[in-house]
Fold this protein.
Amino acid sequence: MMSQAKSANASKRPLTYQEVWGRIGIYTFLGLLALFFLLPLYVMLVTSFKSMDEVRLGLIFSLPQHFSLDAWVKAWTSACTGLDCTGLQVGFGNSVKILVPSVVFSILFGALNGYALSFWKVKGANVLFACLLLGSFVPYQVFIYPLVRFYAQTGIYGSLPAIVITHIIFGMPVMTLLFRNYYSGLPVELFKAARIDGAGFWKIFISIVLPMSVPIAIVAVIMQVTAIWNDFLLGLVFAGRDNLPMTVQLNNIVNTTTGERAYNVNMAATVLTSLVPLTVYLVSGRWFVRGIASGAVKG
Amino acid sequence: MGAELSRHVKRNLVAYIALLPMAIVVIFAYLGTMAWSVRLSFSSSKLLPRYDFVGADQYLTLFDTPRWLTSLGNLAVIAFFFLLICFLLGTLLAIFIDQNVRAESLFRTVFLYPYAMSFVVAGLIWQWILNPDLGIQHTMHGFGFTDFVLDWVVNSEMVLYAVILATVWHGAGLVMALILAGLRGVDTEIWRATRIDGIPAWRVYVSIVLPMLRPMIITSLVLLSISIVKMYDVVVAMTNGGPGTASEVPAKFIMDNLFERANIGLATAASTVMLVTVLLVMAPVIYSQYFRKSGRAS
Amino acid sequence: MSSVSLQNLEISYGNVAIVKSLDLTIQDGEFLVLLGPSGCGKSTLLSAIGGLVDVSGGRILFNDKDVTWADPKDRGIGMVFQSYALYPTMSVERNLSFGLRIAGIDRATIDKKVKWAAELLQITHLLDRKPSALSGGQRQRVAIGRALVRDADIFLFDEPLSNLDAKLRAELRLEIKKLHKTLKSTMIYVTHDQIEALTLADRIAVMKDGIIQQLDTPLNVYNKPANEFVGSFLGSPAMNKVEGQLVADGDRLVFTAGDFRLDASHYPFAQKVEGGRKAVLGLRPEHILPAKGDAQAIEGKVSLIEPMGSSILAWSNFDGVSLSHLVGQDDGCEADRTFPVTIDVQKASFFDVETGWRL
Ligand SMILES: Nc1ncnc2c1ncn2[C@@H]1O[C@H](COP(=O)(O)OP(=O)(O)OP(=O)(O)O)[C@@H](O)[C@H]1O
Ligand SMILES: [Mg+2]
């Protein structure tokens, strides 16, 4: 009898008090911080479903009593920036127009640069690359004014091409780094074999290297979509009045309203603006982290 | 020698051509614009660039401008607390998540999602939450705690901490993600060895594991530093520099002088100061991170 | 000094039982080798002895003291890992001394111990280096040193040499053996390398699927494998196996497989075997000897020869049974010729067909 009880005890490690309290502590810490991190999202969501009356009277943290989509509709179709009351849809369209060519071209250039840098011997290429990397650490403010002058001279200032070119320029360091590091990890024998087979620069790039780049291209898309969508400064300066991206329009809607602030509309607008990067983030999961890590750490 | 060089170029001609766009970008868009900015900072440019030479006048004016000095001080305070808190919080989160917790991926997702959002959004939402007439203070008053005060965004003493709060919310997840990835890469046998050696877990983290993760820590701090030096959107969205000039930052100072105050000379002087500072601080880090173990192409 | 006794030990990961009711006693000062194929649970068992893995049943005794739930640091063990597990950011000196510092031992004692271990392992000149600046063999010495300074009574080695090249392996093997002679501590050593097992061990425990198949001296394990698995797991070139029948021929037992016949009357059967019993004959290549005009010689037709340096491995057909056997370089064995051999039946093994256990 005694020995039976003992062996039953022995089959499970007795948790010490210390360990139990440790577990409780861990979950409490993580849980509280999770609440802190989620708080803004929660506030935005609940407020965006309230009517203005409820916002005025109620508390910001309470759930909506009358669930309403009016604020969302208003934010999308008729929120005002100054006198212009066409809603965020305009900004959304502009952001898409900016996003697509910027992402495509910055990735293509990144892949091409990375390929040329890691497989071909080009004198001075590493110095160029070093300058490019260094440039990515410099605040945009240093480059902005000369670029504005340059675009003005060529007549494209305040147009779609101007903002797209700007995104390509400022995306180039990290895209090049990303692809260069990825290609450095590919077996160089592959490249040598292709050269012996008589393939040239473009042939190797298009038939061998690009098809192998799918994983890193996914990472690149994730990084560029979030970065370009979230950009505020460059869009503000270079895109011009007719192409202002969603983030700029959002800030205008929120910070230029006169009279009573329509918090429900503002918060709906904020959520709408975040929708694209949030979706990318949630769908991409671990790839997102991979992007952060591989863009920055030498692979 | 010359013949050899031309043979080399000929053999690799296509590669040279392919790198031309990058060369143009580096030479004109990066180096050229930088040089031009620096040049203008020695001129008396106002609304339009002028190519005279006024020596260090703009710099003297700059460091006589209270708004600039405030911006610099603000940036220092924000950067210090932002980096410190992000590092501590991110590291703690990573370590706690690494303790075999349930719903690990949920926690990871929650702590990193702000990083996917724009700074504008971060600024706006925390402005609302901290707004005395709407957010936490209003709620507490609603509960009857009428003495409760949380007015950071409108209080010039505290406004910097409001900015820090928003940026930490935005950036701490980055440190968490990078360090967690690093923790996962630590050989389990190292952990076993420390248990045989009888080293308490906290000591293992402090003395063994975190030193092993130095590259990740540096990377995350570099990434965060860049974002904080460039910080503009979050301040514009949250406080627009106010109240008064209490939350001005250098990036905003430059933008205002470029586009609103039409003082290009002063703006470029300020941007040159930032440029030099960043290069001085970053050059050694970049060198050690990216070039010490040079890639194959070299 | 400590003896180790495992009683009815069970270890599982989740619902998967890795080690099943295992009993094992290791004498004070013994060098025991756990040998087995990859994934059979050697590391798991070793970790359980070290307290790094919780057991799900049974007891672990050190010197008759129950340590089943004792903390690893309190068990008086030192452990050497396959990947060395050195602390990469600390110097060799700090790697050795870190555990002692944490334990609050005074500086002078620590220095003395580190110096002693470093001298014993000849790593004194490496004390200021970081592990990344050491060769594989040097790292392994440091890892051993870290176990040494802990004043351990029991040393646990988990495949410490498997990441080293063949030459270094042989060298360090010898040193570990010397170390055991010097320290006279109990050592438990995991490996899947049979040469290591045979050269180092006082006793070998051959494991398969979490069960000890045989626990015996290296010689016995090699010469008298307890079952088919042990017989074929040890030995290179591998043991020949022939399935057949033991039949009574008058008062003698003869093993037959088709036309192949082998007189088994001199085989030391462990139990009484009746005629007609099905059995597997296990024959090591070195126990089939070139016949020097012996009467019982049998002729085989050589089909293939593989020179192995000092000797030659020949594959020959004996009355329909193909066996590999070792011949000297000067024995004149050539492919497609016949070659006479004698079989030393006393060194052969017979296993039960069904259970695989030795007869
Ligand atoms: N943490 C774990 N969770 C679940 N199963 C595990 C775990 N560690 C090991 N195993 C399983 O336990 C079994 C025994 O593993 P163990 O590491 O003890 O093998 P081993 O004999 O040391 O092999 P090797 O020679 O390859 O080191 C294997 O089948 C393995 O898959
Ligand atoms: Mg193992």
In short: The pocket of adenosine-5'-triphosphate (ligand 1) is lined by residues C 13, 18, 36, 38-44, 192 (CB under 6 Å). The longest helix of chain A spans residues 17-48.
